[in-house]
Specification:
Rossmann fold; 2 domains; 16 helices; globular
Length: 451
């Protein structure tokens, strides 16, 4: 009996140590839905947020989007980091693009914004350096989900009237976030524990759930009465609804640890299968593809050419190197089915050896080298022979990888050559018709190989 008691004590002590470890490393907390509370990090964050009037170093509160990159940010050396509309970089752009320019707007999360590199090293800035005709606006924002990306596009139309190309960046793990309206319900100790808009489908129609924390007043309320506010927000948050409940046995560290780990596994398996690929027909995927449709429709209505940029994580690049599996293959299938323009960065961020992986990433963000590769890839897929379009006309655009371009070129040459041969045969047959009738001989002209 004493032996079993010692084993039990050891298990609970080890569980306590592991709980502390997963909290520090992964930001995972014991968070039961029938007894929600704010973490120490959230409390400190909100107090600082109120003191600074909702303005951070890079981002600030936004009533609709949750947060947005600040405009006119200047570093300690007086260098401008964002322009007057919150686009990253020091360039100011006119409301209407100049007739000699091709204006491209880009939307996404931190991988689009370009964390860990300077503004000049981002792929957007590199594109402008490659071709002086390009004006490339970087509206990437840390932590954004596909829904916020779409709404950021709508927001940017207030400052700029004509984009020739609009780029929607897609990161596979971000599809989780479309059904989340309070960041800590999804990622407890994320760097931005803020409210955000959510989305749901009803009768195949996309609906928005407004940001539950649109101003500092709501953040003051959440500090004064966290349980009431959290439970009210949780009524419309999918990830709050699937949280576990607290019971008396949860006083044991082992019970808390089991619930945390099982919940994380369950949350992951709601979207990804055992091979790490996105499942078909999940709610998160359905909402995300509905957002793709909305972005595609709105871009075309504003005479822009929409492009979806598929961005791999570091683990995606590694997985593709090891077994040629893409976690977001189902998204590629959907974009192909809908005939939407897209570029898959996994096609150019290939590695020949695992040692090359570190040269493409700084932590989990792209390195300057990767940004240059991305810029070159996008530039190669822009139709360089097309001049900036006249007012009201969209930019001609090609969005295929290099293998597809080669195949399409061959097919075009084959089709053209075949057409020429058929026309020649038609006229030859007309000339030979009289000869056939008089001699009762038929001559088939030789057709040389089309390849």
């Amino acid at each position: 009996m004493l032996f079993l008691l010692c084993i039990w004590i050891i298990i609970e002590c080890m569980s306590l140590l592991i709980l502390n470890r997963v909290r520090k490393v992964f930001g995972l907390l014991y968070f039961p839905k029938n007894s929600p509370r704010l973490s120490r990090y959230c409390i400190q964050f909100y107090r600082k947020l109120i003191l600074t009037q909702g303005i951070g170093k890079i981002n600030e509160l936004h009533p609709i989007l949750g947060w947005i990159v600040r405009s006119n940010i200047v570093d300690e050396n007086g260098k401008k980091l964002t322009n007057s509309s919150g686009a990253r970089g020091f360039h100011e752009y006119s409301t209407l693009a100049d007739d000699t320019k091709i204006r491209i707007s880009t939307y996404g999360d931190c991988l689009t914004y370009g964390d860990c590199v300077t503004a000049e090293e981002t792929w957007q800035s590199r594109l402008e350096q490659i071709n002086q005709k390009y004006e490339v606006l970087n509206f990437g924002t840390e932590g954004y989900c596909p829904g916020q990306i779409y709404l950021r596009y709508i927001e940017s139309l207030k400052a700029y009237k004509n984009f020739h190309v609009t780029i929607f960046s897609v990161v596979s793990t971000n599809i989780f976030k479309t059904m989340n309206i309070f960041r800590p319900f999804f990622a407890y100790d994320h760097g931005l524990p803020l409210g955000k808009p959510g989305f749901y489908l009803k009768s195949d129609t996309l609906h928005i759930i407004p940001n539950p924390l649109p101003s500092l007043v709501e953040y003051q309320k959440i500090l004064s009465d966290p349980r009431t506010v959290l439970e009210k927000i949780g009524e419309n948050d999918y990830y709050f609804k699937i949280l576990y409940k607290k019971y008396y046995s949860d006083i044991l560290p082992s019970q808390q640890l089991i619930k945390i780990l099982f919940h994380e596994w369950y949350k992951y398996r709601q979207v990804f299968d055992s091979n790490g690929q996105i499942k078909k027909d999940t709610k998160a995927l359905q909402i995300t593809t509905a957002l793709f449709d909305a972005f595609q429709k709105d871009s075309l209505e504003h005479s822009s050419v929409p492009l979806f940029l598929l961005i791999p994580f570091k683990k995606d690049v590694k997985k593709y190197y090891l077994n040629k599996v893409k976690s977001y293959q189902v998204i590629i299938d959907y974009l192909n089915f809908m005939s939407y323009n897209y570029l898959d960065l996994l096609e150019v961020l290939k590695i020949k050896d695992l040692s090359e992986l570190e040269s493409l990433f700084i932590d989990r963000h792209f390195s300057p080298k990767a940004h240059q590769i991305i810029a070159d890839y996008i530039h190669c897929n822009l139709n360089s022979s097309v001049e900036p379009p006249a007012a009201g006309k969209s930019l001609c655009y090609t969005c295929y990888n290099s293998d597809e371009i080669s195949i399409l070129s061959i097919l075009f040459l084959i089709s053209f050559n075949l057409l020429v041969k058929l026309i020649k045969i038609f006229f030859d047959l007309q000339r030979l018709f009289i000869f056939v009738k008089t001699t009762e001989l038929f001559f088939y002209p030789a057709i040389p190989s089309l390849l």
